[in-house]
Amino acid sequence: MSSFEITGPCRMSGEIIPQGAKNEALQVICATLLTSEKVVIDNIPDILDVNHLIRLLEEMGVEIDRFSPNKYAFRAGNIDLEYLQTKEFRKRASSLRGSIMIMGPLLARYGKAYFPKPGGDKIGRRRLDTHFFGFEKLGARFEFKPDEIFYTVHAEELKGAHMLLDEASVTGTANVLMAAVLTPGTTTIYNAACEPYIQQLCKMLTRMGADISGIGSNLLIINGVEVLKGCEHRILPDMIEVGSFIGMAAMTQSEITIKNAAPAELGLIPLAFSRMGINLEIRGEDIYIPAQAQYEIETFIDGSIMTIADAPWPGLTPDLLSVFLVVATQAKGSVLIHQKMFESRLFFVDKLIDMGASIILCDPHRATVIGHNHGNSLRGSVMTSPDIRAGVALLIAALSAKGKSVIHNIEQIDRGYQNIDERLNQIGASIRRV
Ligand SMILES: CC(=O)N[C@H]1[C@@H](OP(=O)(O)OP(=O)(O)OC[C@H]2O[C@@H](n3ccc(=O)[nH]c3=O)[C@H](O)[C@@H]2O)O[C@H](CO)[C@@H](O)[C@@H]1O
Ligand SMILES: C=C(OP(=O)(O)O)C(=O)O
């Protein structure tokens, strides 16, 4: 288990380039299983979760060429389905959440797929019902072995169908969509997730020869095709990393330009930061955040306390609420952070309270933060990162805090942020990997 040692407060300045999006990478890498032809993907983030998925595909028999740490070619000529019954497969696949999305492509191409309990952040119940409900609608049979936590789906024949998903699950939509593109007939997926990364997956599948309409909406219409071909694809910048950098700049009073941040794809993220009183300027494809002595949280029009809450896209992404929460600790004013989608993601506030933040955890989903308006700095502390986003929130807290902080279990941060220590040190942070 590695740790970060941070000597704060750090004031940073300069330019930073966001990595490619983790959650898009996981989807489009799984999509390469849909064709025997070569698929080239650029701007792949060099992070633990993605590297595990690439290794998993390689172990399944996919030929992989690495042109650079961020650009790969995949050719899924022959897949070794026997491997999916091995202990090695279970271990590798269960090291991340996104690997669940190999199921849709395998079901469509080979009529069967297996999966162990997926990994990913331990942030509350993370069911998979939507995935299997969708596969069943397409005609697959589903089995679950509870003692082993092992899922199997198989089908002699799949057939297009209409389905209303029980929730707009991101990986669920991606999985069912990838099965549907090679399923004969028309499939309509209503209550589909429609965030930019699902749109990117749809666009890539279309370039591979799939017939998809309704891209960007919650109703996807897919006319199944017999085969898909190879293509080239470039991954968008990671909006969660972009949001993390905006929050970090505000909290540490740093002046930062986030280069090539694809601001048009950020949805409500800029509005949510401006409601926190944080100034940011969109300059073409870049986002400039000036050094701000203070930022004051707005109230709603009727004067009531601001709430920052998550919702399925185009609502605010749940993956940034930990960052909003930490940033609020040094704002002027108060805010209610309401994490509706995950039930165990706010417990890390105890660590911020230890650092001197004023936070009341109302219940597992809601925390009220009373900002210090930079009057009292947080103090350095020793902590452990429970999940990716809490980890980066603690890193932001430590960068703003007076004195030395240590964050243990930074593998959680490395799952989603590429060389974050080196990149932040280049613009003036003081982070040591130990
Ligand atoms: C690998 C990957 O891509 N992971 C992302 C993906 O996870 P993942 O696809 O696992 O998340 P889901 O979209 O399935 O669901 C996330 C949570 O929100 C709840 N829910 C979902 C939809 C809905 O309409 N109502 C509702 O309450 C679910 O019950 C669950 O607790 O999407 C999540 C939601 O953006 C992100 O946090 C994860 O980073
Ligand atoms: C919850 C997250 O990831 P995962 O779904 O991979 O656990 C995240 O990226 O914040």
UniProtKB/TrEMBL annotation:
Its EC number is 2.5.1.7. The gene is murA. Pathway: Cell wall biogenesis; peptidoglycan biosynthesis. It comes from Geofilum rubicundum JCM 15548. GO terms for biological process: cell division; cell wall organization; peptidoglycan biosynthetic process; regulation of cell shape; UDP-N-acetylgalactosamine biosynthetic process. InterPro entries: Enolpyruvate_Tfrase_dom, Enolpyruvate_Tfrase_sf, MurA_subfamily, RNA3'P_cycl/enolpyr_Trfase_a/b, UDP_GlcNAc_COvinyl_MurA. GO terms for molecular function: UDP-N-acetylglucosamine 1-carboxyvinyltransferase activity. It is found in: Cytoplasm. Residues 7-424 form the Enolpyruvate transferase domain. Pfam families: EPSP_synthase. It catalyses: phosphoenolpyruvate + UDP-N-acetyl-alpha-D-glucosamine = UDP-N-acetyl-3-O-(1-carboxyvinyl)-alpha-D-glucosamine + phosphate. Phosphoenolpyruvate binds at residues 22-23. Its main location: cytoplasm. The keyword Mitochondrion does not apply. One of its GO terms (cellular component) is cytoplasm. Cell wall formation. Adds enolpyruvyl to UDP-N-acetylglucosamine. This is UDP-N-acetylglucosamine 1-carboxyvinyltransferase. Belongs to the EPSP synthase family. MurA subfamily. The lineage of its organism: Bacteria, Pseudomonadati, Bacteroidota, Bacteroidia, Marinilabiliales. The active site is at 121 (proton donor). Keywords: Cell cycle, Cell division, Cell shape, Cell wall biogenesis/degradation, Cytoplasm, Peptidoglycan synthesis, Transferase. UDP-N-acetyl-alpha-D-glucosamine binds at residues 97, 319, 341.
